[in-house]
Amino acid sequence: MRIASVQSQALAASVERPLYFGIGPFPTFFATLVEVTTDTGITGVGECIVRKAPQVTKRIVDEILAPVVIGRDPWDVEGLWQEMFDQLRRWGHSRGFFLEAISGVDIALWDILGKSVGLPVSKVLTGFGRERVKCYASSIYFADLERMVAEAKEQVQRGHTAIKVKIGRAPEQGGLRMDVAVVRAIREAVGPGVEIMVDANGAYDAATAIRVGRHLEELDIAWFEEPVPPDDLEGYRRVRQSLRIPIACGESEFGVFGFRDLIVRGGVDILQPDIARVGGFTGARKVAALADAYHLAIAPHTGFSGGICHLAALHFAAAAPNFLTYEAMFIENTLVDIFTEPLPKPSQGHILVPQRPGLGLQVDLEKIQRYTVS
């Protein structure tokens, strides 16, 4: 079995009502879809995380990565990953769009492996073999206090046992006082039996994050996510040493080396790799092994990505050591609904992992064409 072709498509989908959080408004979802086909007729699909300009990632896939893998055996996935990574690593490009592009190709290769042996990717990864995983509802975005409380209560009524709440408002939005007031109101509304995570998306400096965190400690917060910008490693260390709330981060990291630096600096308790950013399944396995060596928990990030990322993260969660919980997004994002059948839905705080070969769901080509960027 040899790789015969690699194709990619840039996707975009706008929403009627933009989401507001610590970074600002988010009106459009993007993704780059990757299809890898073998000479035996098996096609694997993957996704590169994209926040802006999906055409950039598409061009990297088409012009830099496709020539590396075409003609090769997909079972050599670890070696192919390293060869793709080495194309630009010593030229200074070991992060950013480049690694996101590698992620899409790698996810597609693992999908091929599963389909070729008739097993779900979660089994091919030879990990923990979980058939269902713990999950949390994500996320309660910025709105007035009453609406955020109502959304939190609605998710609990749907059976969720854990919810994530966005904080990190600008001063004109009420600032940290509004952040604390909202979380306190949600805790009072859902009661002590529901886990609450808070996520600032890097909006604070370290001093402000510590100040907010000390107000939140009394509310039994499960984790404080991205309290400072992703490049502020010293800030992460200061926040973690100052608070009794576990610190979570990693959705903005690009691979095992970035996570290594976070861990060594003492800045994190819970690692949140995004499989469509850290190098696909191969890159995510490296991060999981590193986390296991330091006895740190893994909580895969999904966020604003498309359906293939969410599906791949579910298989990774099923296999990963030290797995803690999976991010089940309930926001409107039409790029998630790109399959011929829906993604598995959470039930009573857990979500089932598809057991059909490969990633387990088939992409609907008509839906893809609807969102393709020419």
Walkthrough of the structure:
This protein is an alpha/beta fold. It has twelve helices and twelve strands. Strands 4, 5, 6, 7, 8, 9, 10, 11 and 12 form a nine-stranded mixed sheet that branches. Strand 6 (195-199), helix 7 and strand 7 (221-225) form a beta-alpha-beta unit. The model has no long low-confidence stretch (mean pLDDT 96).
Characteristics:
374 residues, 9-stranded mixed beta sheet, 3-stranded antiparallel beta sheet, 12 helices
Write the layout of secondary structure elements.
Layout: E1 3-21, E2 24-38, E3 43-50, H1 54-69, H2 77-86, H3 96-117, H4 121-124, E4 132-140, H5 145-157, E5 162-166, H6 175-190, E6 195-199, H7 206-216, E7 221-225, H8 233-242, E8 247-249, H9 256-264, E9 270-271, H10 280-293, E10 297-298, H11 307-319, E11 326-329, E12 350-352, H12 365-371
Parallel strand pairs: 4-5, 4-11, 5-6, 6-7, 7-8, 8-9, 9-10
Antiparallel strand pairs: 1-2, 2-3, 4-12
Q: Which term fits the overall shape?
A: globular
| Helix/strand order, N-terminal first | EEEHHHHEHEHEHEHEHEHEHEEH
Question: How many strands, which pairing sense, and closed or not: the largest β-sheet?
Answer: 9 strands, mixed
Kindly, what is the distance between the CA atoms of the first and last residues, rounded to a whole number of angstroms?
A: 32 Å
Fraction of residues in β-strands: 15-25%
Gyration radius, rounded? 20 Å
Low-confidence stretches: none
Helix content: 25-40%
Quaternary:
single chain
Protein structure class? alpha/beta
Name the average pLDDT.
96
Number of helices in the DSSP assignment: 12
The count of strands amounts to: 12
